Amino acid sequence: MQTWLIVVIVTVVFAIIIGNIALVRLSAKMEFKKPNANTKNTTGTKKP
Asked: Is the pTM of this model over 0.70?
């Protein structure tokens, strides 16, 4: 293999790994809202 191809592959792999780490860190900081019990499927839904 040529050297530039190996460098490109290694760079892409590191970019994916760093992107995943950043995504995990961002999602750890987010707050997830709990849905209210009053609004759970009560707006005109019909069961078959």
From this structure: no
Cα–Cα dist 26/21, whole Å: 9
The label of the residue with tokens 């191809």 reads 5
Rounded to whole angstroms, the Cα distance separating 6 from 23 reads: 26
Whether the pLDDT of residue 48 is over 90: the answer is no
Spacing of C-alpha 16 from chain mean position: 13
* 10-38 exposure pattern, b = at least 16 Cβ within 10 A, e = fewer: eeeeeeeeeeeeeeeeeeeeeeeeeeeee
Q: How far apart are CA 40 and CA 34, in angstroms?
A: 11
Q: Which amino acid is at 26?
A: L
